[in-house]
Design goal:
Length: 116
Amino acid sequence: MKKNGETLVESLLAVLVTALAVCMFLNFLAVSDQIMRKGEKIEDKFYKTMSLLETMEEDQSGEELVKSSLGKVTVAVKSDSGLVFQDEISVQVYYSDGLASYKWNESSFSHDKNYD
């Protein structure tokens, strides 16, 4: 006697495999959505930080993305014959994770020094 068709066990196994595949697919979608949201948060934080650094402002939102402090920059100008000019200038430094920007405080620079 020849049997045609599927048995009940084969049918249930096919349904189980299909259900597992659908669950895995939905899980992949959920994980990819979480990754996208995390990426968007990081990107938003980066652009907000860059904007604050470009405008040289401290973060007022409470997140403390950008902080500021006073700093000093040494400026040295050299020619082939030697040092022509060197001075230390006070600056206001705005900084965040690996990024920095500074603003020159004009009152700290002495224009009347002789650098011969």
